[in-house]
Specification:
Blueprint: H1 12-18, H2 30-50, H3 54-71, H4 76-90
Helix pairs in contact: 2-3
């Protein structure tokens, strides 16, 4: 059986066991966890553009972002405040503006 070696949600091993299968897991070191969080963010972000259920994929991306913030001891409400401040000073993306060049 091939090795998966991917970060999964906390209840996934239980779900696999209830399906009469046997997960083989280990707890990541901090360095390994950081590496796998980066991979997971990339994976989940790509799925936003591949899946028809975009809301579910966005929820997955958000969960990974929260995990990254916790891992780096960052209060996510602080991240949200920074997002809001940047939106206030620089705007959002609603106007669909594409910058083609600066002369």
């Amino acid at each position: 059986m091939p090795t998966l070696s991917k970060l999964v949600r906390d209840h996934i091993p239980e779900i696999i066991t209830k399906d009469n299968r046997h997960p083989v897991t280990h707890i990541a070191s901090d360095a390994e966890y950081w590496e796998y969080l980066q991979q997971k963010l990339s994976e989940e972000s790509a799925e936003v553009f591949e899946d028809e259920n975009i809301a579910e994929e966005l929820a997955d991306v958000l969960e990974v972002l929260h995990a990254i913030a916790r891992h780096k001891s960052i209060d996510f409400s602080g991240v949200e405040l920074l997002r809001s401040q940047k939106r206030e000073s620089r705007g959002g993306f609603e106007q669909k503006i594409i910058l083609d060049e600066i002369q």
